[in-house]
Automatic annotation (TrEMBL):
The lineage of its organism: Eukaryota, Fungi, Dikarya, Ascomycota, Saccharomycotina. Belongs to the eukaryotic ribosomal protein eL34 family. Keywords: Ribonucleoprotein, Ribosomal protein. GO terms for biological process: translation. This is Ribosomal protein L34e. It comes from the Eukaryota. Gene3D superfamilies: 6.20.340.10, 6.20.370.70. It comes from Naumovozyma dairenensis (strain ATCC 10597 / BCRC 20456 / CBS 421 / NBRC 0211 / NRRL Y-12639) (Saccharomyces dairenensis). GO terms for cellular component: ribonucleoprotein complex; ribosome. It holds the Pfam family Ribosomal_L34e.
């Protein structure tokens, strides 16, 4: 007859945090070994892909791990992926360029209006 394994000492319900694995001891007895939850990979805040180079740990374990496991040495490292960072940089550059172009066009129109006024007075 098969030996049964029951929850012991801990929570007696089959919840997500109370999963067990049945393990056979060297004495031939089946025991319940509690299994920790699987850690999800940290995701990019913009596009949602898993961040390469950042350790996949349970939230509390990030406190005990060194900084090199939590970030990558780049702007927004450990928060955004490289493609999203590149997009942000390009977008910021283009917005600045747009502002400069707008300013130049405005100055040219004002100069043209002044020249028109001087030409109409004579």
């Amino acid at each position: 007859m098969a030996q049964r394994v029951t929850f012991r000492r801990r929570n007696p319900y089959n919840t997500k945090s109370n999963k067990i694995k049945v393990v056979k001891t060297p004495g031939g007895i089946l025991r319940a070994q509690h299994v920790k939850k699987q850690a999800s990979r940290p995701k990019c805040g913009d596009c949602g892909i898993a961040l390469p180079g950042v350790a996949a740990l349970r939230p509390r374990q990030y406190a005990t791990v060194s900084k090199t496991h939590k970030t990558v040495s780049r702007v927004y490292g450990g928060s955004r992926c490289s493609n999203c960072v590149k997009e942000r940089i390009v977008r910021a550059f283009l917005i600045e360029e747009q502002k400069i172009v707008k300013k130049v066009v405005k100055e040219q129109t004002e100069a043209a209006k002044k020249a028109e006024k001087k030409g109409s007075k004579k």
